[in-house]
Amino acid sequence: MWDEEKAHLAKFNELIPKYKVRPSALLPLWNVAGYALGKNRIFCVKSMKFFQVLELLYWAKKQLWHVQSRLKLLLANIIISEIMLSMLFCF
User: CA-to-CA distance for 53 and 51, rounded, in angstroms?
Assistant: First the structure.
């Protein structure tokens, strides 16, 4: 992507004198906007990584809750089975 931008800049710098077009008066504004957008992209990537970590933690917590609920159910079934077996052998 950087190479493409360098090629675009080189082409524009070639075409400006060829067609005797004066550079835009807004060129400093475009330079600042380009710099700001580049910096913003860095922050977006960092925040995207942060949200990916949050989603991973949420998923892990959800999986842990699922496993815990299954273990509780399994333990309850084992206890009920033991009670039923003890009742059966009492008679």
Answer: 5
Q: What burial class does residue 3 get, using C-beta atoms within 10 Å of its C-beta: 0-12 exposed, 13-18 middle, 19+ buried?
A: exposed
Tokens found for residue 69: 């609920």
Instruction: Indicate the residue type of 35.
Output: Y
**CB < 8 Å & 24+ apart, contacts of 60-64:** none
Give the pLDDT band (50/70/90) at residue 42: confident
pLDDT at 1: 60
* Token duo for residue 12: 């524009």
Beta strands in the chain (DSSP E): none
Token pair of 2 as six digits: 């950087």
Mean pLDDT of 50-77: 87
pTM: 0.37
